[in-house]
Amino acid sequence: MSKPYCLIVEAPVSLSPQGFLWACCIAIGLSLLIAFIEIPTKSKSRLRACLVWPSVFYWLVLSFGNVVTTMLASLAVVKLPATLAPYLPVLTPFFGVFGFETVLKNTNITMFDRGVLTIQSWIDKAATAATAAAIVKEEDISEQEEQGLVDRLKKLNDQEINARVLDKLGGSAVVELEAAARTSGADAKLYKVFQLVSKLNRAERVALLRDKRSFWRTLLIVCVVGLVMVVVLYAVFQLLVIGRRAVVFAGSGNVLPFLKEKFPNLKGTDSWVDVGSSGALEQSFYYSNYGGSIGAKGRTGFIVMSSNGTAALEAKFKAAAPALQEHNYWLSISVARPPLAVLYRGEFGKDLNVHAASAGPPAITYPFVELADLTNFIQNKSPEGMKRYYPEEGAGTRSLLDRAAKNPLQWPNVDEVPGYIEDLNDKGSFVELVSYPQMSRVSKTAASCAQLQQMQIRGALVRTESLESDHLLLADYAVVMKVARDEVAGPDMYLITNSAECQLAQALAPKDIQDCRIFGTPVDHILKLDVTHGGGLESAVYLRCVTP
Amino acid sequence: MDPSVIALLHTNDLVKQVFSEVLKRRRVQLRDLRESLVDSPQFGLPSSGGSAAANEGRAQDPVVQEKIEDAVQKLKDAKLIDERQAPIRDFSTYYVTANGLNAERDLRLAAPREQALLPNR
To answer: What is the arithmetic mean of pLDDT over B67-78?
Structure first.
């Protein structure tokens, strides 16, 4: 297992805007649940009787309190371990609702004997109103039911009623009830019916009231409930599935697995356009009408990944007409600088002229090739029968080598670059240039030393004559997205207008980006943030056990 | 809360008991109310020992009926309970109002826990 890849980017334990929305929705749902437990209990009424407007107001008051405490809890959950990050949308409302129920709901703050923040009192009043309304509604429902029962039983003749009274109330009940009715001057039949109705249990009441309308009413309820469920499922589908497609990733196939490893919950990477870094940066120049409609609501996010910084974008920008430059602004976040590596299998280490070098602390021995030897190998010395997996035109790795070699190389025709290291398992000889050797489609991590050894793959880093960064030729993993000028917030303020783009940017550079806004002075309309910690010899752990 | 309501509930034990009974059940028919209160010492009748039949008989006592209906009327006037009338008076239902629930809460808050006024259990 490799160590963190020369960078530094760790997803902060915080709620994304979408996660926060989920947390609030869960808090509101919990409020509904609490309301529909409390009101029937307090009013001793059935749930149907609690569906009254005061109950809605009570739910709204509870929801307001619970959402506020959920917002407060979202500030506190940052102290939780990072492993809990995926569960924050559930944990945050849990803590929020708990806080509201135990603290705020029992809070009455007074000043000079006058209540100023009598939350307990507000909640009690709302609950009392809902309870009282539920009791009245329950009365109405009971009255309707009893009237229905009385009407039905009144249609029976005296013998039938007497039989039912005898069955329900015992042997002498008929005589006693008739006597009591006579004493009070009441209608004896009606009196017996009322007595009978008052002694019926729930099942008997339901049986007497059942009619054809019940079937249609039940069918209607089932249809309405079914419709509501379909709407809810559609909303969830929209949020979870369609919502994930609201961003498109384009660019380097080296940067993508790196991001996926560092951000396992990163959404939208299934919408990846496999195009070289330079090509992706060019598309970013055109994207969203040259930046003119970057603020359009509901636009799809577009995130470019480059393994060679923003050089191609800068060149494109400088060559463009002023009208196309005017609204075009970008944010570029350098997230890592892994060293370029040559992976190979076969006996041509001598042609590559591979050496060993030591560095540290911590002490590390690593194989390397000089840039000049590598460029010579690429242009002149490639043996017959060897597969050459060199980067295609427009790829960041090719640009990196061209730039380092001062003059563009004469690249030979190349074979198609395998997507994963496991694709190189055919024992044939090959050479490949790569800065992130992803092991397999399943594993998001770089291939380990042991895995390379098992596949008889060797490797070497590329050293330049530069004195910087241990002489290593480093890729520059940049994540680029378009931003808009936020003139309302200030002259040097810029805004990320798409929530998916903002979420990723905030995860990459949490200290620099607040509320999707960045402060800074762009160069060639590109704001640059650097969240790497220098060069990355320590990141090339996959080469430590590979000897020249 | 209206001081006259507090006075009513503190000075009249029968009214207090009737209110407690309605609060406890949330809604109750007059006939059931009489049967549940007939053992109350306010009526000055010897205890029947809790037999249902005996209680039903005593509940028909005109004195009991009159006292309970009077207490119910006072609670209605104070808007602590409300009535749903039935064609036969015995089957009229009394249920607690929002004022009644507020009174319950206020009086509970005012009284120490062990001496809580309502409900009287």
So the answer is: 90
Question: Tokens 């007059």 correspond to what residue?
Answer: B30
- Give the pTM: 0.51
Predicted ipTM beyond 0.85:
no
| Residue in the block written with tokens 């490797």 | A459
Interface of B with A in 33-52 (CB under 8 A): none
Among candidates A204, A209, A197, A202, which has minimal Cα distance to A169? A197
DSSP secondary structure letter of residue A248: E
- Lowest-confidence segment of A104-118, A169-183, A417-431, A491-505 by average pLDDT: A104-118
Nearest-Cα distance to chain A for B84, in Å, is: 8
Q: Residue B113's pLDDT is what?
A: 46
**Residue range A122-157, pLDDT digits in tens:** 888 899 999 999 999 999 988 888 888 888 888 888
What's the N-to-C CA distance of chain B in angstroms? Answer: 23
Q: ∠ CA(B100), CA(B105), CA(B107), 5° rounding? A: 90
Q: What is the DSSP letter of A380?
A: I
Report the pLDDT value the prediction gives residue A231, as an integer from 0 to 100.
Answer: 83
User: Any bridge partners for residue A110, and if so which?
Assistant: A115
Q: Give the residue from A36, A211, A49 showing the smallest Cα distance to A143.
A: A49
Q: Which residue in chain B has the smallest CA separation from A140?
A: B84
Tokens of B47: 């205890």
Q: At what angle do helices B62-77 and B52-59 cross, to 10 degrees?
A: 70
Count CA within 13 A, CB hemisphere, residue A479: 28
Give how far Cα A346 sits from Cα of A189, A426, A436, Å. 107, 12, 21
**Per-residue model confidence as pLDDT tens digits over B13-71:** 889 889 999 999 999 989 888 888 876 666 655 544 555 556 666 666 777 788 888 99
Return the pLDDT at A332: 95
Residues of B in contact with A125 (CB under 8 A): 102
Sequence spans of domains, chain B: 3-115
Of A277, A236, A239, A235, the closest CA to residue A256 belongs to A277
Element (H, E) at B27: strand B27-29
Which H helix or E strand runs over A527? strand A526-530
CA torsion through residues B74, B77, B83, B88, sign: positive
The position carrying tokens 């009715």 is: A181
CB atoms within 10 A of CB A484: 18
Q: State the greatest distance between any 2 C-alpha atoms of chain A, in Å, as a whole number.
A: 123
Domain B3-115 in this protein, CATH class: mainly alpha
Least Cα separation, residue A70 to chain B (angstroms): 29
> Which of A508, A63, A84 shows the shortest CA–CA distance to A76?
A84
Q: Are the C-beta atoms of A458 and A432 separated by less than 8 Å?
A: no
> In sequence order, what DSSP letters do the residues of A41-68 get, joined into one string?
HHHT--GGGG-SHHHHHHHHHHHHHHHH
A486, A518 Cβ separation under 8 angstroms = no
Q: Which of B84, B87, B88 faces A139 most closely, judged by CB atoms?
A: B84
pLDDT of residue A525: 93
